[in-house]
């Protein structure tokens, strides 16, 4: 499949992410950009919540189920809102056609330059990733397709019988499985297309809405925000290549829209297009949707928003103090004073976060270097784009000069500071601030563009305003007359210069970040091995299990064939009794009667063998001795597919 052939599927994916929620946001009273940008937040939340609830009522996961749910929610909301429309607040004011055109230009630019970045990094939509995280995500999709259960509480089992349940945010997996069912594409293609669509649709829309709330109905601000949304390497591109962290990317893509609603709540929006009362009403829904998409995204939202929240509380306390309501003013002030000790107690004394706080990644550069990377956007060794870095620094000074925007600079400092702690500071104490992200500099760096993009846009506006002022001076009247150059032409000229001077919004450097996960030279699986995985579907029966060693690339067999494997992920902390025993003895079914007892208990029928280092934990999955009785069915590269014939015969005889 080529990316051109995948275009219809990408359109379907974009429709899935936006349209179901658009009806709901419109009924709530949002219009145009606000309605469209907030719709994916609703979609992700409803999909994830439905996936949790539906198994309790025996409903199988399917596109039809989600169609009924969204239709039901829309009808229910309409039945509540429409009769009360004269008593409810008026819909949020819609921006004029100039802002709407700027929005369309911005999203078009983001998609166009984003796709040029994607095509350079990912050869085709079906391209398979073999990494530490990809098996879990691929095989979670397969498990949903096979079981009809997309619950966050069941995804971690990955279809392995008797594997202990665990929690894992399943919004991305629910959406990916729906895309497979609707479009019929392969699991790897669905994963790639969904994650790319999130990066090129949800993220730019959220960035433009946040910029709209910060700058007011400025066509330049909204359009440039869309343009710059795909220029920074740390997000969305870094998380498409590092890990890969697809669910984390989905959650973070929702944060700008959530921040836009927060601006309304705390009265920091300029000519608000959401409405303060409406934002407070939506707040629990938005926070729940972001949290259920990925808890890390919720923490990132809080980290980015903390300075704005503190400012809002401080302003409110001052207002009440001057009005004579000193008791409430002191209460609000106490909230600020005791916030830091409360944070310290929760992080250090509570066991809720002990798991993530225990994870640690060692610093890899001096603190000064990390500061430089954060300020220039070249995090984790990325290439510096000096124009964007200059615009960012100009934007910082521009925002700091305006009191109502200083919180934005403070928020940016928070994100950059956490990155510096992770990348350049040693010691366990730093985990008090970095532990929520597993002290992973890549996850933390992904937060920086949330504030970095608006600040860079303000820097661009500051320079454009300066040029416009110069062009209006009488001393340049002769130049304007000779060139027929109007001050109104500054905006498109700056946008064009921005694209050309950044090499197409850093297409090359950003594609290199993504390509880390998609190696073309020396791939971990050969074409012959992937071809064997594709044939497995025709060689095995649905419902049977294939044994394999998880660390040799064979976990991809489940993603390609959609057949259940014994070790569908690399996390072996919850191994079952059968997994533990068979991994060491499966290729000895004639000499060890316990092998067939356990294999038949879980319906294990096949072995995908590859010789490994002798004496390791998975000796039972090496090529079996010819006398062991296993039947060779097919082979490709280093892998051979066997039927565990002795156990099949034993089960057949016992059933007669």
Describe the structure.
This protein is mainly alpha-helical and 656 residues long. Helices cover 63% and strands 4% of the residues. It has 29 helices and 5 strands. The protein has a 5-stranded mixed β-sheet with strand order 2-1-3-5-4, with helices on both faces. A hairpin with a 2-residue loop joins β4 and β5. α7 (187-215) packs antiparallel against α8 (219-228).
Percent range for β-strand residues: under 5%
Question: Biggest sheet, open or closed, and with what strands and sense?
Answer: 5 strands, mixed
Q: Please give the domain count.
A: 2
Distance between the termini: 47 Å
> How many strands in all?
5
Low-confidence blocks of residues: none
Helical fraction equals: 55-70%
Count of discrete alpha- or pi-helical segments spanning 4 or more residues: 29
User: What structural class do you assign from the helix and strand content?
Assistant: mainly alpha
The strand order across the widest sheet is 2-1-3-5-4
Outline the fold blueprint.
Layout: H1 7-28, H2 32-53, H3 63-81, H4 97-121, H5 134-147, H6 171-183, H7 187-215, H8 219-228, H9 233-241, H10 246-265, H11 276-293, H12 295-322, H13 326-337, H14 339-349, H15 354-358, H16 367-376, H17 386-401, H18 406-424, H19 431-434, H20 441-445, H21 448-471, H22 477-483, H23 490-501, H24 503-515, H25 527-539, E1 545-548, H26 556-561, E2 564-565, H27 577-585, H28 593-601, E3 604-609, E4 631-636, E5 639-643, H29 645-655
Parallel strand pairs: 1-2, 1-3
Antiparallel strand pairs: 3-5, 4-5
């Amino acid at each position: 499949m080529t990316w051109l052939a995948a275009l219809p599927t990408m359109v379907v994916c974009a429709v899935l992410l936006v349209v179901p929620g658009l009806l709901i946001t419109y009924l709530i009273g949002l219009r145009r950009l606000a309605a469209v940008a907030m719709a994916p937040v609703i979609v992700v939340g409803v999909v994830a919540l439905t996936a949790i609830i539906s198994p309790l009522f025996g409903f199988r996961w399917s596109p039809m189920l989600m169609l009924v749910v969204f239709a039901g929610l829309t009808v229910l909301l309409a039945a509540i809102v429409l009769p009360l429309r004269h008593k409810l607040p008026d819909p949020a004011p819609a921006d004029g056609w100039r802002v709407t055109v700027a929005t369309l230009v911005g999203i078009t630019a983001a998609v166009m330059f984003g796709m040029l970045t994607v095509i350079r990094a990912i050869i085709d939509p079906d391209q398979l990733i073999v990494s530490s995280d990809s098996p879990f995500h691929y095989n979670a999709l397969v498990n949903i397709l096979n079981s009809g259960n997309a619950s966050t509480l069941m995804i971690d089992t990955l279809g392995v019988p008797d594997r202990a349940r665990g929690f894992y945010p399943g919004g991305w997996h629910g959406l990916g499985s729906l895309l497979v069912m609707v479009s019929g594409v392969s699991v790897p293609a669905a994963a790639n297309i969904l994650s790319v669509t999130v990066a090129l649709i949800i993220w730019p829309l959220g960035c433009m809405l946040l910029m709209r709330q910060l700058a007011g109905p400025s066509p330049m601000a909204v359009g440039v925000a869309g343009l710059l949304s795909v220029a920074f390497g740390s997000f969305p591109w870094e998380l498409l290549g590092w890990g890969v962290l697809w669910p984390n990317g989905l959650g973070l893509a929702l944060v700008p829209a959530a921040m836009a609603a927060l601006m309304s709540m705390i009265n920091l929006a300029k000519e608000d297009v959401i409405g303060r009362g409406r934002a407070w009403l939506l707040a629990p829904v938005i926070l729940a949707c972001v949290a259920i998409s990925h808890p890390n995204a919720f923490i990132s939202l809080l980290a980015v928003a903390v300075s704005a929240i503190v400012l809002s509380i401080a302003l409110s306390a001052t207002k009440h103090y001057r009005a004579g309501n000193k008791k409430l003013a002191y209460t609000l002030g106490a909230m600020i004073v005791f916030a830091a000790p409360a944070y310290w107690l929760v992080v250090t004394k509570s066991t809720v976060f002990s798991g993530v706080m225990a994870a640690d990644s060692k610093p890899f550069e001096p603190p000064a270097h990390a500061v430089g990377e954060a300020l220039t956007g070249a995090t984790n060794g990325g290439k510096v784009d000096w124009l964007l870095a200059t615009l960012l620094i100009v934007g910082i000074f521009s925002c700091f000069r305006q009191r109502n925007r200083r919180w934005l600079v403070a928020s940016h400092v928070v994100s950059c500071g956490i990155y510096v702690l992770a990348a350049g500071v040693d010691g366990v104490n730093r985990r008090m601030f970095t532990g929520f992200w597993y002290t992973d500099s890549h996850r933390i760096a992904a937060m920086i563009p949330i504030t970095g993009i608006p600040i860079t846009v303000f820097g661009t506006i500051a320079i454009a305003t300066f040029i416009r002022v110069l062009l209006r001076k009488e001393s340049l009247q002769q130049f304007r007359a000779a060139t027929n150059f109007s001050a109104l032409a500054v905006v498109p000229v700056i946008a064009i210069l921005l694209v050309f001077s950044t090499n197409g919004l850093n297409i090359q450097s950003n594609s290199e970040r993504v390509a880390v996960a998609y190696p073309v030279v020396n791939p971990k699986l050969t074409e012959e091995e992937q071809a064997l995985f594709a044939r497995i579907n025709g060689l095995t029966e649905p419902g049977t299990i294939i044994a394999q060693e998880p660390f040799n690339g064979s976990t991809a067999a489940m993603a390609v064939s959609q057949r259940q494997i014994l070790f569908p992920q690399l996390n072996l902390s919850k191994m079952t009794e059968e997994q533990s025993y068979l991994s060491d003895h499966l290729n000895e079914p004639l000499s060890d009667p316990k092998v067939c007892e356990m294999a038949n208990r879980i319906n294990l029928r096949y072995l995908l063998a590859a010789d490994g280092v002798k004496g390791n934990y998975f000796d039972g999955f090496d090529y079996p001795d010819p006398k062991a009785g296993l039947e060779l069915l097919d082979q490709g590269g280093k892998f051979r597919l066997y039927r565990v014939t002795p156990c099949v015969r034993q089960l057949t005889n016992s059933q007669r």
